[in-house]
Write a structure and sequence with these properties.
Largest sheet of chain C: none
Family (chain C): Belongs to the ATPase C chain family.
Radius of gyration of chain B: 14 Å
Shape of chain B: elongated
Mean pLDDT of chain B: 88
Structural class of chain B: mainly alpha
Distance between the termini of chain B: 18 Å
CATH class of chain C: Mainly Alpha
Pfam families (chain C): ATP-synt_C
Order of helices and strands of chain B: HH
Low-confidence stretches of chain B: none
Number of domains of chain B: 1
Low-confidence stretches of chain C: none
Keywords (chain B): Membrane, Transmembrane, Transmembrane helix
Number of domains of chain C: 1
Number of helices of chain C: 3
GO molecular function (chain C): lipid binding; proton-transporting ATP synthase activity, rotational mechanism
Strand content of chain C: under 5%
CATH architecture of chain C: Up-down Bundle
CATH topology of chain C: F1FO ATP Synthase
Shape of chain C: elongated
Protein name (chain C): ATP synthase subunit c
Radius of gyration of chain C: 16 Å
Oligomer: heterotrimer
């Protein structure tokens, strides 16, 4: 594929986007802590805080547009995610779920905002940290609610199975609860953001490269750009969906840890 | 709807961890004993066990 | 461009489970839409079918990495 492009286009060969495009250089200094994703994460925190403080400061019976927007997001997380899933103890977990949802959503949408255009969650460390928070919280809640022994016993021993089969099943249950759940939670978010950003890079950079080619290729490149723009809207959908799924699964895990019976 | 989403992702997690754990055990035994068939055996055992677990948790009334 | 053919094989082998999952849930949705009270009967069947199809996909994924 690369050689084909090189034959048909003038200038240097097309370099397909790869995972190297995600290793951004530090903005100043020589350390690894001043890269663009770090600043974007801090910026997102400031943005979320300013938005919700502004939305809730002048709370009125007849809400302004800003207040309505803030309250819609809050009501969505509280009613549709926390209350429907967790049940009567849901108010304790609304702050965490709300923070998680807005943080992931804002950082994902940064992936398609012009000038920023990099989803911080496509660096795998950020989803790992969020998954570790969720992991600690849902195990802590389960242990506090049921006691350590009973909680572990409920995870490890499925009722209604002959005793020797536990040798097969107990490791699988333990691996699911302590390894696969946080891992899939973080990797799902990471992989979606990574693949989506890579897809946009392929179309935009490919269209740019075609524009530099001979006249026949110049005619093709608008189609690549149009596809890139269409996929940007598709990406917006995926980004909202991934923030929703991460929060929903966190709520479901907390609900599973709180429930007495499986 | 949300319960179904939960069930689907837990099924996925069970199958993945069954394959990973028992496949890992088979792989470890293979490199310890110098054989080559225990990895496949471990993967099959893991898949069977996780399918059984899925049946226990979601398949019966 | 370098890579391994295993991943191409995995991509091909994931087509089957993908179609199977789609068909299972299409049938489940139309069954529940026609007869909403049959949901509790259909749900375990749909989940088991999904588990069987998904097991093949995951088997392909693991074999793509270990072979």
């Amino acid at each position: 594929m690369r050689s084909l492009v090189r034959l048909s286009a003038e200038g240097e060969g097309f370099v397909p986007p790869s995972s190297n495009d995600f290793n951004l250089p530090p903005i100043f200094g020589e350390n690894a802590y001043t890269t663009k994703p770090i600043f974007m994460v801090f910026f997102s925190v400031i943005l979320i805080s300013v938005f919700f403080i502004a939305a809730s400061r002048k709370a009125a019976i007849v809400p302004s547009k800003l207040q309505f927007a803030g309250e819609s997001i809050y009501a969505f997380v509280r009613n549709d995610l926390a209350r429907d899933v967790i049940g009567h103890e849901f108010m304790r977990f609304v702050p965490y779920l709300f923070t998680l949802f807005t943080f992931i959503l804002t950082n994902n949408i940064f992936g398609i905002v012009p000038l920023l255009q990099f989803p911080a969650m496509s660096r795998v460390s950020f989803p790992y940290v969020l998954a570790v928070f969720t992991f600690v919280i849902f195990h802590y809640v389960g242990i506090r609610k049921q006691g350590l022994g009973k909680y572990l016993k409920e995870i490890m021993f499925m009722p209604g199975v002959p005793k020797p089969v536990y040798i097969l099943l107990t490791p699988i249950e333990l691996a699911t609860f302590f390894l696969v759940r946080p891992l899939t939670l973080s990797l799902r978010l990471f992989a979606n953001m990574f693949a989506g950003h890579l897809l946009l890079l392929v179309f935009i950079m490919g269209g740019d490269h075609l524009l530099k080619g001979v006249i026949g290729l110049k005619l093709v490149s608008p189609f690549a750009f149009a596809f890139g723009i269409g996929l940007t809207f598709f990406e917006f959908m995926v980004q909202c969906l991934q923030a929703y799924i991460f929060t929903l699964l966190t709520a479901l895990y907390i609900a599973g840890a709180l429930a007495d019976e499986h | 709807m949300k319960r179904e989403e939960n069930a689907l992702w837990s099924i996925f997690g069970y199958l993945l961890s069954g394959l990973l754990f028992w496949g890992g055990v088979g792989w470890g035994l293979d490199s310890w004993l110098g054989t080559s068939y225990l990895l496949l055996l471990g993967l099959l055992v893991g898949m069977g066990a996780s399918l059984y677990l899925v049946w226990l948790r979601f398949g019966r009334e | 461009m370098t890579g391994t053919l295993n991943l191409v094989g995995y991509g091909l082998s994931a087509i089957g489970p993908a179609i199977a999952t789609g068909m299972i849930f299409a049938a489940y949705i139309s069954g529940v839409a026609r007869q909403p009270e049959a949901r509790s009967v259909l749900q375990p069947i749909a989940f088991l079918g999904f588990a069987l199809a998904e097991a093949l996909a995951l088997f392909g994924l693991v074999l793509a990495f270990v072979l």
